[in-house]
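Before we proceed, please read the two lines closing this message. Let me know whether the structure tokens fit the sequence:

…
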Amino acid sequence: MVQNKTRTASGVTSVTAARTCANSALLTTQKRATLIYVATTRNITLALPEGLLRKTKVLAAERQTSVSRLLTDALEALVAREEGYERAKRASFSRLDRAHDLGTEGRVRWSREELHGR
């Protein structure tokens, strides 16, 4: 068996092993270790109804991911949607604060009865 180890500048180590089997064919296998940045995470305990958990596991398997990754993606989408709503609301209020004066100077000079002709 012949083994070759290589390391790239990015820290990836690759091990290639080659061996000759009885029928003289050359078999090559590779093992690769890749460094991946992982953000700090915290574990939580989550209680789900059995049926929901079973369906979640099936869905995760169909998408070739883990239940943890599936739930993380769903929660990230929820948080992003909420943050987007808050940004839009702040922008809308900001535009209202900068709106042009329509001649009222910000004061209401009429009553409800006057508006409705009562």
In short: The chain has a mean pLDDT of 79. The longest helix spans residues 67-97.
